[in-house]
Design brief:
The protein is α+β, with helices and mostly antiparallel strands. The protein is 36% helix and 23% strand. The model has no long low-confidence stretch (mean pLDDT 97).
Length: 400
């Protein structure tokens, strides 16, 4: 039996285990930093395999598989938090396979799948331990949605001298059971728009005696659109959405403030910084037009989260071995995704790949958007994800 046949056999033998893990974690569905039951379940599975682990505040976990032979150190990551979202009992066409026990919380993004696939890979790689060299770190990350667990997890990984990293995200825009490991930007970087225009309050009958910040806020939106059209580099993509503008409470009172909030997304870090600078500059100059002041939130000035960028060498390696083990046509190219992901920080530290695993099959009820109450997927995709994780890990561990 060759290596690929062995991996396929072991994953097939453990497929029901992976499905059961997914259903258990889906049932727990705990929000960021409160993944207590999920945390306990993962620890229990690590203990069953006799693997040492490290608990990272507050609920992240690093499980370690040491082969006892020198080699590479590979970090495999899954996120474990759910969303504060009421789950619809049905997917797009009918009843879902399992439901959250908390009516106000659900796995509406796929983190239950990510965790289950990593648990399955952990079990298979442990069974293959005698054939492997190096160290595998199974990283279960709390609080991915608000990015509240990533910094502590990466700090805990420092001592392990990680060579490569791997992660998977199920993706509702990609056909079911297809997988993408393309090189380059895969998910967008993000920054915020958060400006409060401060004017002078007054009576609506004498606007000349006031300084109306609502005009400043409204003009800011138009000015920002014009600036983006004329200053963002041609050929670069920066999307912008401003879903909130708030000012005033009464029809005959000019309020003192108007707040504008939104986000923009990008795939090139320098262009993202440029967009942030444009947003601040336009706010400050627009305010002066209306005898107002622009209070730019500190987070808008300082925070800019980069895109998820796959290493070209790791992507080529993953593509090669996945094309060998998965059915022809399974590995495909996929357009970048405009959502953000904390795994970008893994990839800023370690060369690696963040794969997209397709779940779209609307005829069968799968493919509702992420963070939607109908979000669901066919559990057959778990097998593909587990095979991919194991095969890539084995390949990278074996490199000299």
């Amino acid at each position: 039996m060759n290596l690929n046949e062995q991996i396929l056999k072991l994953v097939d033998e453990n497929e029901q285990y992976i499905i059961d893990c997914r259903r258990k974690i889906h049932t727990y569905a705990e929000v960021a930093m409160k993944e207590v039951k999920t945390h306990a379940f993962i620890l229990e599975e690590a203990k069953k395999l006799g693997l040492p682990y490290e608990e990272v505040p507050t609920t992240s976990i690093i499980v370690k598989l040491e082969t006892g032979r020198p080699g590479k150190t590979v970090a495999l990551r899954a996120d474990i938090d759910a969303l504060p979202l009421v789950e619809n009992p049905e997917n797009l066409v009918g009843p879902r396979t399992c439901r959250s026990e908390d009516p106000a919380t659900c796995h509406g993004c796929g983190h239950d799948a990510h965790s289950a696939m990593l648990l399955g890979a952990m079990k298979v790689l442990t069974e293959m331990k005698d054939q492997l060299s190096g160290t595998v770190l199974f990283c279960f990350e709390e609080g991915e949605e608000p990015n509240s667990g990533i910094i502590a997890l990466l700090a805990a990984l420092e001592k392990y001298n990680v060579d490569y990293c791997w992660g998977i995200h199920v993706y509702a825009e990609l056909e079911e059971n297809k997988i993408s490991v393309d090189a380059g930007p895969r998910m967008a970087g993000a920054s915020m728009v958060d400006v409060t225009f401060r004017g002078k309050s007054g009576h609506a009958s004498r606007p000349d005696l006031a300084a109306n910040p609502i005009f400043a806020g409204a003009s800011y939106l138009n000015n920002l659109c014009v600036a983006f059209c004329n200053q963002i580099t041609a050929g670069q993509t920066v999307t912008m959405a401003v879903p909130m503008i708030h000012g005033g409470e009464a029809a005959n009172v000019i309020d003192e403030t108007c707040r504008v909030r939104g986000t923009f997304r990008f795939f090139d870090m320098e262009e993202g910084k440029k967009a942030r600078d444009i947003s601040v500059n336009v706010a400050e100059h627009t305010a002066k037009m209306f005898k107002c002041e622009a209070e730019v939130a500190e987070g808008m000035r300082k925070f800019i989260g980069g895109p998820v960028v796959n290493d070209a060498g790791r992507s080529a390696s993953a593509s090669k071995v996945l094309n060998e083990i998965l059915p022809e046509g399974t590995v495909v190219e996929c357009e970048p995704w405009y959502a953000g992901e904390s795994f970008r920080l893994f990839l800023e530290k370690y060369p690696g790949v963040f794969a997209f695993l397709g779940i779209k099959n609307e005829a069968e009820g799968y493919g509702a958007p992420h963070h939607n109450d109908h979000f669901d997927f066919n559990e057959s995709i778990l097998r593909t994800g587990a095979i991919s994780t194991v095969r890539v890990a084995v390949e990278w561990l074996s490199e000299k």
